[in-house]
Write a structure and sequence with these properties.
Length: 267
C-alpha cells in the first residue's frame, strides 16, 4: 500500500537515539517511504543520521534541540520553517522513563514533566503554523503506564496521562482546521533501552520471560518496526478519517484478559 508520504516533511522529536530505538526506527521507515525526516533531538548522534540519509540521496534535516528548553524548541520550529516552509506531520516521540517517583524531589518531578509532557505542548504550539499550512497531522507517542501505572515513576506516568488528555483536546481544537491528532500507546517493546534495563537486573532473564509470558499475541514483545509502521499509517492520508484516537500497539498486553486465553500447552 502506498502511504502517499513521498516528499512529506515529517518532524520526529527524540529521534537521535541509538540504532533500533523507536524514534530512529521511525526515521528510517519514513526515509524508506520517500518522506523527508526532520530529527529534533539534543543528541549529537543526529548529525550522523542526517549525513547517513543524505549520503543515500534522501533529503533529511537534524536540528539539535534540548527539548526541555522552550526557546530552543521555538528556534527549531523556525529553522524547519525556513528550510521547508511547512510541516506535514509532527510526531512527538521524546520520552524518558526517569523513575521520578514519590520519593523524588518536587524539582525532579517537575523536570520529568518538562521533558515528557511540556515538550509536546511546546513543539505543537511552535510548529502549528507550519502544520496548518499543509493541513498536516499530529501524532503523540504514549505509554501503557498512563493506563496501568507502573510504580516508582510518577513524573513519567503523569506525563503520559497528560499526553492522552492533550491528544483529545487538540483533536477538538484543530478539527475545524482539518488537522488530525492521534496517539500511539506502547507497552512492552524490545528496544536497546529495554535490553539495557533487563541486563541491569540480577534476575534479568527471568524477569524478561515473565513479561513475555503475559503478552497475549504470540507471547513476544512488540518490535520498534511494528510501532513505526503503525505511526506511518496513522500520519498518512490512508487514515484520513481517524482523529482523537488512542491506537494501542502491544499484542493485547493492556486490554485483553489474559486469564481467559488458552494455554499454549493445550495445542
Amino acid at each position: 500500500m502506498d502511504l502517499h508520504l513521498k516528499d512529506k516533511v515529517v518532524v520526529v522529536t527524540g529521534a537521535a537515539g541509538v540504532k533500533g530505538s523507536i524514534g530512529e526506527t521511525i526515521v528510517q521507515a519514513l526515509a524508506e517511504e520517500g518522506a523527508i525526516p526532520v530529527i529534533v533531538c539534543r543528541n549529537d548522534r543526529g548529525f550522523g543520521y542526517q549525513k547517513e540519509l543524505q549520503d543515500k540521496g534522501i533529503d533529511a534535516l537534524f536540528v539539535k534541540t534540548d527539548l526541555t528548553k522552550p526557546e530552543q524548541i521555538e528556534a527549531a520550529a523556525k529553522a524547519i520553517g525556513d528550510k521547508y516552509g511547512r510541516i506535514d506531520a509532527l510526531i512527538n516521540n521524546v520520552g524518558v522513563n526517569d523513575g521520578a517517583g514519590l520519593e523524588a524531589s518536587v524539582e525532579d518531578f517537575t523536570n520529568s514533566l518538562q521533558l515528557n509532557l511540556v515538550s509536546f505542548f511546546a513543539m505543537t504550539k511552535y510548529c502549528l503554523p507550519l502544520i496548518k499550512k499543509s493541513k498536516g497531522t499530529i501524532l503523540n507517542i504514549g505509554s501503557k503506564v498512563a493506563l496501568t501505572g507502573q510504580g516508582k515513576t510518577s513524573g513519567y506516568a503523569a506525563s503520559k496521562g497528560g499526553i492522552l488528555g492533550l491528544t483529545r483536546e487538540w483533536a477538538v481544537d484543530l478539527i475545524n482546521e482539518g488537522i488530525r491528532v492521534n496517539a500511539i500507546i506502547i507497552a512492552e517493546s524490545w528496544t536497546p533501552a529495554y535490553d539495557a534495563w533487563i541486563k541491569s537486573l540480577k534476575n534479568g532473564e527471568e524477569k524478561l520471560q515473565s513479561i513475555i509470558d503475559k503478552i497475549p499475541l504470540e507471547n513476544r514483545m512488540t518490535t520498534p518496526q511494528e510501532i513505526a509502521d503503525t505511526c506511518l499509517f496513522a500520519i498518512s492520508d490512508r487514515s484520513s478519517h481517524t482523529t482523537g484516537q488512542f491506537i494501542t500497539v502491544d499484542g493485547g498486553y493492556v486490554h485483553l484478559d489474559r486469564s481467559l486465553l488458552p494455554s499454549k500447552d493445550i495445542f
